[in-house]
Each structure stands twice: as structure tokens, then as C-alpha cells.
Write a structure and sequence with these properties.
single chain; L,D-transpeptidase catalytic domain-like; 10 strands; globular
């Protein structure tokens, strides 16, 4: 099973941001909620390695993270702002601002890139904290 690495580089007050590196070296930016002790619906998830299985979110392809401690229904799906998430991870092609807030942009295009790369197959997601690359 292929492994994807998510290096979180910013645990800010407005969200958690990182860089998702695919096995071929392509990179996508990510946004998540802030860290709030893994509290469901309001916190990003703990660092670790998770199996991701193909799923659907709002009629679009997504991936469901399996065996997240103390959490259910954590997904990788399209969104632009941390407040659009309930503990999930949103990829984007680049960082930017929406409505004055930090965001990932072109999230639907980033999801299409993931879908094209993994062809609706499982993969492992390793989440670690690193300084900004």
C-alpha cells in the first residue's frame, strides 16, 4: 500500500496547515481545524499513520480515515477553510486567502489530482509535525 505524508507546519489560531506529499513527489497544501485535544468535530486529529479507504462526501470522491483514536467519520474531502471542516482534512493546490482568512485554494482540483493518482484505491496517510518546508 502506498504511503502519503502530511507534514503539518503551522498549528495556528485560525487553523492547522500542512503539505501533503504524494509518492510521486507531487505536493498539495492542506487545512484542518486547530488542535483541541482531539475533541470530535472541533479538533484536527492526532499525528499518526492511518489507512484511507475510498468513500464519497457530498456526492464527490473522498477518502475515509480508518481507526482514528476516539473519532469517527474523518475524511479527506474538498473544502477551502478550516471552519468548513468537522475534524477532516482538505487539500488544495495552493495557499491563499478567502474572506480575509487563510485557506487552501483549488480544493476540488486537488481532490481530482488525488483521485487520478490513487484511482479509488486505499493508501496510508502519515501525519507528522515539521517546520514549514
Amino acid at each position: 500500500m502506498q504511503r502519503v505524508k502530511l507534514q503539518r507546519w503551522d498549528y495556528g489560531t485560525d487553523g492547522t496547515f500542512g503539505l501533503l506529499t504524494l509518492p510521486n513527489g507531487d505536493c498539495l497544501y492542506t487545512c484542518e481545524l486547530v488542535w483541541k485535544d482531539n475533541e470530535p468535530f472541533v479538533s484536527c486529529i492526532p499525528e499518526g499513520v492511518y489507512r484511507c479507504i475510498p468513500s464519497v462526501h457530498n456526492g464527490r470522491p473522498s477518502w475515509l480515515l480508518v481507526d482514528v483514536p476516539g473519532r469517527d467519520d474523518i475524511m479527506i474531502h474538498s473544502a477551502n477553510l478550516p471552519e468548513q471542516l468537522q475534524g477532516c482534512i482538505a487539500p488544495g493546490l495552493r495557499m491563499g486567502r478567502l474572506y480575509g482568512n487563510r485557506a487552501v485554494l483549488a480544493s476540488k482540483d486537488a481532490m481530482k489530482q488525488l483521485e487520478k493518482f490513487f484511482l479509488k484505491k486505499e493508501f496510508e496517510l502519515e501525519i507528522i509535525y515539521k517546520d514549514k518546508p
